[in-house]
Specification:
5-stranded antiparallel beta sheet, Alpha-Beta Plaits, 3 domains, 428 residues, Chitinase A, domain 3, 10 strands, alpha+beta, Trigger factor, domain 2, 13 helices
């Protein structure tokens, strides 16, 4: 096989491929054998046992040539990209330039590819891990939450005060434009005044209201609020109270903690809460540490990534965002309106982050190759058995785990985990 490469762009290459006669002969023989097992038998011979030269005479030449071309082009293309170390990420655009049946084949294959990867000295890149501290205040807040959940409620006719639970309707509008804020509304919503479950300042506005009262007030959202479009935004809330309920919290004693779980004392309960909070924080910090380390290396990695890969990542990011909006009860169009962006502007806003994600994946793949990281059949099988154990009663999922494409995906995840573990060793 002869291969000539022409780079049209950093991420697109055209290969001119010429098959050798011996290679083409082997392809023809394989195609004839495959057809022999599927075509009708020749008189005097069992199916699949007739000499190939006799079978060839019985076949439709167009069928034989079509099968031959498909197999030959596929084999030669795969061999060519492996020989030239090309990381193709798309189906090739094939153009046959010369073909003499079974003896001569020349074609071009244009394909998108990942450009040359130049890694930094990743062994020297360090990222500090955050210190984990679980405070008594955090533990006490969990205890208070448990008491609130176990509290008895009694409807009262008086004005609401700190510690009461109120049931209310609320709706938020932009203080300037008077437009409705998507997601900033609720019907018959139970809220404990003083729980700090809402935006700072909101709960205090409810103190003094009675059932049936309505009130409007303005709240400025925090500058670090989770939804960027609402950061520092002044919002007018209109509320209507339906019910005021006095909360009778259970006494914090050994009887109460025993009703929650296998605890003998308040100290036991608090120790268990602290342990769980510690584990949750450790998982969160560890994941953040791994992400920061990979991103730090990716930012220093030089590689041209195809636009199509970045576009695919933008679509995935958008799907994740749409899912989060569903949980908040907000439509995609409402979100775009709140952001003040068109769909195209929203995609372009995410392009830089999407490109960095793609670079991170390419970087990990390159490091895995440099470090000669591998996933053994035993490691893959153990992970698949663990997953099957989680879906013992789901036969459909059990079948999915046996599919070759899903096994490859699981193997890739294991490889990624092993590569990140190696980077963490270097970072220490």
């Amino acid at each position: 096989m002869q291969v000539k490469t022409t780079h049209e762009e950093d991420t697109k290459v055209t290969l001119t491929i010429v098959g050798e006669a011996a290679e083409l002969a082997r392809v023809k023989e394989r195609v004839l054998k495959n057809l022999a097992s599927t075509q009708g038998s020749i008189p005097g011979f069992r199916k699949g046992k007739a000499p190939l030269n006799l079978l060839e005479k019985q076949l439709d030449p167009a069928v034989l040539q079509s099968e031959f071309m498909q197999q030959a082009i596929n084999d030669l293309f795969i061999q060519a990209v492996e020989t030239k170390d090309i990381r193709a990420i798309s189906q090739p655009d094939i153009n046959v330039t010369k073909f003499v049946p079974f003896t001569t084949l020349e074609f071009t294959a244009t394909v998108e590819m990942i450009g040359k990867v130049t890694l930094p000295d990743y062994k020297k890149i360090k990222v500090s891990k955050k210190t984990i501290i679980v405070t008594d205040k955090e533990v006490n807040e969990v205890v208070a939450s448990l008491q609130t959940r176990a509290a008895t409620r009694k409807e009262v006719a008086r004005a609401a005060k700190d510690g009461d639970e109120v049931v209310l309707d609320f709706a938020g509008t932009d203080a300037k434009t008077k437009e409705t804020i998507p997601g900033a509304e609720g019907k018959e919503y139970p809220l404990v005044i003083g729980s700090k479950a809402f935006i700072p300042g909101f709960e205090q506005e409810l103190i003094g209201l009675k059932a049936g009262d309505e009130k409007s007030f303005e709240i400025v959202f925090p500058k670090d609020y989770g939804q960027k479009s609402l950061q520092n935004k002044k919002v007018t809330f209109t509320v209507k109270l339906h019910k005021v309920q006095a909360m009778n919290l259970p006494k914090l004693d050994n009887d109460f903690v025993a009703s929650i779980g296998p605890f003998k004392s308040i100290a036991d309960l608090k120790a268990d809460i602290k342990k769980q909070l510690q584990a949750d924080k450790e998982r969160e910090v560890e994941q953040g540490y791994e992400n920061e380390l990979v991103i730090a290396i990716a930012k220093k990695t030089k590689v041209a990534v195809p636009k199509s890969l970045v576009d695919e990542q933008i679509v995935r990011m958008e799907q994740e965002e749409r899912q989060r909006l569903v949980y908040r009860g907000q439509t995609w169009q409402e979100h775009l309106k709140a952001e003040g962006l068109t769909e195209e502007e929203h995609r372009e806003k995410n392009r830089e982050q999407a490109e960095l994600r793609v670079k991170a994946g390419v970087t990990l793949s390159e490091i895995a190759e440099v470090e000669k990281m591998q996933v053994t059949p035993e490691e893959l099988e153990v992970q698949i058995q663990i997953l099957k154990g989680q879906y013992q009663n789901d036969q459909a999922m059990q079948g999915e785990l046996d599919k070759s494409e899903n096994r490859r995906d699981i193997a890739n995840r294991i490889l990624t985990q092993k590569t990140i573990a190696k980077l963490k060793e270097y970072s220490k």
